[in-house]
Amino acid sequence: MGKTNENAKAKVKPEAKKQGGIRKYFRDLKSELKKVTWPTKKQVANNTGVVIATMCVTGLFLAGVDWGLGWLFTVLVGLGA
Fold first, then answer.
1. Is the residue at 37 inside a domain?
2. For the whole prediction, is pTM greater than 0.85?
3. Quick one: pLDDT band at residue 35, thresholds 50, 70, 90?
4. DSSP 19-67
């Protein structure tokens, strides 16, 4: 049983050394960046507006929760006094 594992390990070939280096990396990077579909200025402006609106709504919601919990805390402390 132990021999089977040894034979299986012996059959695994070491990985070949990666060829090309830094020059190939940047060539491939340039090739991949050409495939990207970049957004238009209009799309960027629209997405920015959506993000800002979402942040405002979330901020108002959290401010309301903070105010409500602060009020509740004040009421509960007032009952104990």
1. yes
2. no
3. very high
4. PSHHHHHHHHHHHHHHH--PPPHHHHHHHHHHHHHHHHHHHHHHHHHHH
